[in-house]
Amino acid sequence: MMLNMNVTGTDSGQPPVLLAHGLFGSGRNLGGLARRLGESRRVISVDMRNHGDSFHDPDHSYAALAGDLAEVIAAEGGRADVLGHSMGGKAAMTLALTRPETVRRLVVMDIAPYTYGHSQSSHIDAMEAVDLAGLRLRSEADARLAEHVADPGVRAFLLQSLDLKADPPRWKFNLTALRDQMPQLVGWPETPKGSFAGPVLFLAGEDSDYCRKPQVETIREHFPQAEIRVIPGAGHWLHADRPAEVAEAVAAFLG
Predict the structure, then answer these.
(1) Contacts of 244 (CB under 8 A, 6+ apart)
(2) What are the catalytic residues?
(3) Angle at CA of residue 50, ends 184 and 124, nearest 5°
(4) How far apart are CA 34 and CA 156, in angstroms?
């Protein structure tokens, strides 16, 4: 099955740019980047499997996610520049390491080929705890979610994927699959091995701890040509915290 995708921008004759969002996101999370890159490039924004309007599947491994991206690229000419944030970044790295012929240039945002110690299952707990019955207004949904998630920014992010038009309302995520595969999502698969010889830009948030010294060592191992840039004043959601700086860095790197 093909991922749900939105194609925008100008066809300049260059390979398209494929954008892959992070966990609990959707293609529109990278909308600012899509608009900036679309000034001179064709841009493909996808909903990753088990997110947005894409299909649900019990397999949410990085091999499966990379396979989905490869399928999109094959349908769009066979080669692309690929950008991924967080989970999407790990999927993009897996793609570059296993099918390097499909990736011309790679941009990875605030993630590394590394097994992290945290879990995001608390967000799944929170979403499953919300009583969705009778919900019609996003403000009411926010009030119910606030009983379980204190951070208003996190609530706003999660609520982008609440379908209030459905009867009854529903989360667009496959929460069962995401919970089941959370250890793999925060981890890094034993395969792929080896390295990707092409040009790679890693953007890290200054206020994030996802790309510190231990992670940089694994980046160098797999991506010897990697340029690593730290975005001042940005956290893990660096494209939301510093949209102009991130967009210009990406546009310049992709040419």
Answers:
(1) none
(2) 86, 236
(3) 65
(4) 20
Task: Name the helix (H) or strand (E) containing 17.
Answer: strand 17-20
- pTM for the whole structure: 0.96
- Report helix, strand or coil for 167: coil
For 248, phi and psi rounded to 5 degrees?
A: -70, -40
How does pLDDT run along the chain (255 residues), one tens digit per residue?
A: 999 999 999 988 999 999 999 999 999 999 999 999 999 999 999 999 999 999 999 999 999 999 999 999 999 999 999 999 999 999 999 999 999 999 999 999 999 999 999 899 999 999 999 999 999 999 999 999 999 999 999 999 999 999 999 999 999 999 999 999 999 999 999 888 889 999 999 999 999 999 999 999 999 999 999 999 999 999 999 999 999 999 999 999 998
How wide is the angle at C-alpha 105 spanned by C-alphas 101 and 108, nearest 5°? 115
Backbone angles phi, psi at 130, to 5 degrees: -75, 130
What 118-125 contacts at long range (C-beta under 8 Å, 24+ apart), as own/partner pairs, is: 118/186, 119/182, 119/183, 119/186, 120/23, 120/24, 120/182, 120/185, 120/186, 121/179, 121/182, 123/24, 123/149, 123/154, 123/158, 124/175, 124/178, 124/179, 124/182
